[in-house]
Amino acid sequence: MEDVMQDRVDQLVGYIMKHCLWQFHSRTWDRERQNKEILQMTAQLLCNEEVQHDTLFDRCYWADAVYLADAYRSRYPWLAMMAKAEIKELMRNLHERMDYLTIKGSLNAELTDKNY
Fold this sequence. Notes:
The model has no long low-confidence stretch (mean pLDDT 92). It is built from four helices and no strands. By secondary structure, the chain is an all-alpha fold. Helix 2 (28-46) runs antiparallel to helix 4 (84-104). It has a domain at 34-106. The protein is 67% helix and 0% strand. The N and C termini lie far apart (43 Å).
């Protein structure tokens, strides 16, 4: 079961890496915030839950989340067979992986430059 989860996370990561420009923000705090907000909203959309998008920042993240959720639904039919709890776990794992790839494991020195 763990192999299936990892394979699915890898598929979702691959889509983001190939199609989503938001992963390239130049500061750590931007990447942390975008990963959290976009992936959380995407999870809510995939679970057919209401998503709050009252502020301008929320609307920006929501637009990316809508795009991502639509792309995931159309490309990964196995999502439709997953329970809400499984989707939330999948998205938590995806969030952790994206944080590693775009922040913690990144070699981009701009992310940690205090003068940038």
